[in-house]
Amino acid sequence: MTGSFVGDMTIFVLALLVGFEVISKVPATLHTPLMSGANSIHGVVLVGVVILSGETHGILGYVLLFIAGAFAAANVIGGYVVTDRMLQMFKRRPVVPGAHSKDDQP
Amino acid sequence: MTHWETGIRFASLFGAVCFVIGLHLMNSPASARRGNQVSAFGMTVAVVAVLLNVGHGDGGAVMNATRWIVLSAGVLVGGAYGLYAARTVQMTSMPQLVSLFNAVGGGAAALIAIAEYDIHTHPSGGTATATVLDVVIGGITFTGSLLAALKLQGHLSHPVSFPGSHAASGLLFAAALAGSGWVIAGADRKVVLLGVVVIAMVLGVLTVLPIGGADMPVVISLLNAFTGTAVAMAGFVLSNATLTIAGALVGASGSILTKLMADAMNRSVLSIIAGGFGTGATGVMAAASAGGPVKAIAVDDAALQLAYASKVIIVPGYGLAAAQAQHECRQLAEVLESHGVDVSYAIHPVAGRMPGHMNVLLAEANVPYDQLKEMEEINSEFERTDVALVVGANDVTNPAARRPGNAVSGMPILDVDHAKSIIVIKRSMASGYAGIDNELYTDPKTSMFFADAKQGLAALVAAAKTLVA
Question: Cα-Cα-Cα-Cα dihedral of B237, B243, B246, B251, to 10°?
């Protein structure tokens, strides 16, 4: 059991470092969608709830399973849908033929 | 390991890879939407894989009819609510929804640990440690995020503090530590763990209660990091790498945003958690001592100044969002642009109620994202700007921040005072969150246009239209 704990810890620390590396480059413009997208990713807790469901028993167990399932599903489905809704609003300036502003890329 | 199990593990790995690639694609507005879709695809694969696994009955897990029904019922109820909320939420209410998802994510992670503890009463030291960390962090983020959502919705929005609240938090924290230690040492009673859960939930409330509205970007980011960590701990409890990886990614993202937001407000995370500033009598006193003379401007003069400028920078703050004036703002920019004015937006990192909130609000109002400039990018442009139009922003434009010895000292600000002239749309001379006078308003280059953000901008649009027609 100790071996698996160390293994989990290794994965955790490395994933944390990957996260820092990938996310520190995200521009401020996208911070809200980033947080909302990260929110959807922690909806992965649904995977945990499904694993849990395989060994649940007793009234307390079923109540906990129901609530956890509802929480996790709201998180994962709502998170992805709202992030997508937000991101589709981000549009580049429409290119008008003949009218080049100085902001255009050379 | 059977072939079946190997296949399931590979599917989970695929999911984790999708999360990382999805986050990577968030680096640019052009690819961000695809990034979210990649992430959602990875999530679907991971969930389907684990469903197949428990359905297959591998690794000791056996599904029966009751388990399927309870799981499906929970998922249907929660999923339907999540879908409804995500489809209907107003962009101004985005911070509340993100807080709510933080709460339920952390809550689900804590529930997993509680249920697992109920099933296997004597976990090993490592698993027991992960269990208490999961319930403590998950419990704090559950109630803390719910309270944050309520505050953002306008309930209990004023910082609430009572004598001895810090001492109470300290005592409860010590009790949580003691209870956690007992569980790790092998407490034979489930009630000990439940006690830790309840204490954590009370701590969540006590932590968020004294925090004021403008500190919300920091709080939401911190709670986001907490939820990620709680989910990672649930991964430890279940020995499931997908949860651990995804939780760690969110923990990293939340921590980075927390640091960025705290830096942008020039405050340490600890001092924000300890309670807001400008909340006591000091704010009122400072506001009473008004500076030099203030110059007011009428709508036609303001419109004239804007329409005949060659470069205008709009500085939106939370006041703009609160007044739902982002559409009027974009209309004004369009009228000015049709008259050949170069218009861009200067966005301070903490403009809004969550990181990057103002960008989403303006994107919703169809402002192209290449017009939205970050602070570092635009500060050097103010010198070449004819008119800076400040709408609903206050402390982040106060030049006093460059001097030591006041409430905003050292706070990174937008160099609005470097513009050739400044127009501020504001209802009154009331001070901002920091509770001190904004020296920008008494600058000889500044004209105050006293109006509500929405009505003021609409009046400017109307006046500017007659000038450019």
Answer: -20
Q: Is A29 on the interface with B (CB under 8 A)?
A: yes
How many Å lie between the alpha carbon of A106 and the closest alpha carbon of chain B? Answer: 15
Strand partners, B215: none
ipTM value of the model? 0.88
Asked if residue B307 belongs to a domain, the reply is: yes
A54: containing domain: 28-91
User: Is residue A104 one of the residues assigned to a domain?
Assistant: no
Residues in B 18-47 with any Cβ partner in A closer than 8 A: 19-20, 22-24, 26-30, 32-33, 35-37, 39-40, 43, 46-47
- Indicate yes or no: CB of A24 within 8 angstroms of CB of B256: yes
In the structure, what pLDDT confidence band is assigned to residue B274 with cuts at 50, 70 and 90? confident
CB proximity list for B353: less than 8 A, separation 6 or greater:
B95, B152, B213, B216, B217, B220, B318, B321
And the tokens for A81?
A: 């849908």
CA nearest neighbour of B232 among B240, B221, B224: B240
Domain that includes residue B156, residue range:
103-279
pTM: 0.88
pLDDT at residue B155 in the model: 80
pLDDT of residue B2: 77
Same domain, B212 and B338: no
| B395 is an active site residue | yes
Chain A residues close to B26, C-beta within 8 Å:
23, 26, 30, 33-34, 37
Total domains in the fold of chain B: 2
For residue B394, pLDDT beyond 90: no
Inter-residue contact B100 to B149 (CB < 8 Å): yes
Residue B320 maps to a domain: yes
Domain count, chain A: 1
pLDDT confidence of residue B281: 32
Structural domain includes residue A84:
yes
Which of B213, B248, B279 marks a domain boundary?
B279
